[in-house]
Automatic annotation (TrEMBL):
Keywords: ATP-binding, Nucleotide-binding, Transport. Residues 56-279 form the ABC transporter domain. Pfam families: ABC_tran (PF00005). Residues 1-29 are annotated as: Disordered. Transmembrane segments: none annotated. SMART domains: AAA. PROSITE patterns: ABC_TRANSPORTER_1, ABC_TRANSPORTER_2. It comes from Streptomyces qinglanensis. This is Teichoic acid transport system ATP-binding protein.
């Protein structure tokens, strides 16, 4: 069910509309992300006999002594696909399957060992562990996050209250004026998502963001992703919550051990994945 095979057979991208539906929608399919035989390899350097701590590594650097060994982790293995403007694509797979690594490669945060990644526009990666300044208030983090995404101060000021309201940070008090270190992990994740979702992105990648927060926030998040798609962006969602994938995405990429096993319509891929995980 590879994307190349489906494209050759139907003339439409995998996991999207049928030929009849495509004929009713004028305009060509516009690629936003192309991965060609992408390989990502991590190299982990460590000392012998378990001496792999940061202190041991620093000592080897200072003394210019070689390490006691190197381990290669082949995290992504020959992945190829094409994403199109207006799509929401789910990434599924067991822990350690390479989902987050693939997103980082698309965002330009990890170099390819071999193969290529092409993007149209600026990819934006949103993860639950995205860095924010814990000693600064939520208010200041909204400003800094907006600036980091390329928004002007005027844009941030215009969208500030919407970001706060969307996050729900102030539903139980004036938390937006408190330092981020006083937030729960769920509150911090909701604020990160709200900042990222305040801007229309060429390519928005969300790593487990919808797994946090209550059902009301998850519904708001899913609705916002649909709005981003209408504004001609492409959304990638990594989640272990199959319901979120079903509610949000029309196409799914299934990775296992770094390899792309299936690429196709959401329901078809999830059925096969659920069979695999129930064994």
């Amino acid at each position: 069910m590879a994307v190349a095979e489906q494209t050759e057979q139907s003339g439409a991208p995998a996991g999207t509309k049928t030929e009849a539906e495509a004929e009713q929608t004028p305009g060509p399919w516009v690629p936003t992300v192309i991965a060609e035989d992408l390989h990502i390899v991590y190299r982990v350097y460590g000392g012998s006999k378990g001496k792999g701590s940061a202190t041991a590594a620093l000592n080897r650097i200072v003394r210019r002594k070689p390490g006691g060994g190197m381990r290669e982790v082949h995290a992504v293995r020959g992945v190829s696909f094409t994403a199109y403007r207006g799509q929401a694509i789910g990434l599924i797979g067991s822990n350690g399957s390479g989902k987050s690594t693939l997103l980082k490669a698309i965002a330009g945060l990890l170099p390819a060992e071999s193969g290529k990644v092409y993007t149209d526009g600026q990819p934006s990666l949103l993860g639950v562990n995205a860095a924010m300044m814990n000693d600064l208030t939520g208010e200041r983090n909204v400003v800094l996050g907006g600036l980091a995404m390329g928004m002007s101060r005027e844009e941030i000021q215009h969208r500030y209250q919407g970001i706060v309201d969307f996050s729900g940070i102030n539903e139980k008090g004036d938390f937006i004026t408190l330092p981020m270190r006083t937030y729960s992990s769920g509150m911090a994740a909701r604020l990160r998502f709200s900042i990222a979702a305040a801007k229309n992105h060429d390519v928005l990648m969300i790593d487990e963001a919808l797994a946090t927060g209550d059902k009301r926030f998850q519904k708001r998040s899913e609705a916002r992703i649909r709005e981003l798609r209408k504004d001609a962006g492409t959304v990638f969602l990594v989640s272990h919550n199959n319901k979120s994938i079903r509610d949000t995405c029309e196409r799914v990429l299934w990775l296992e051990k770094g390899e792309l096993l299936l690429d196709g319509p959401t329901e078809e891929v999830l059925k096969e994945y659920e069979k695999f995980t129930s064994k």
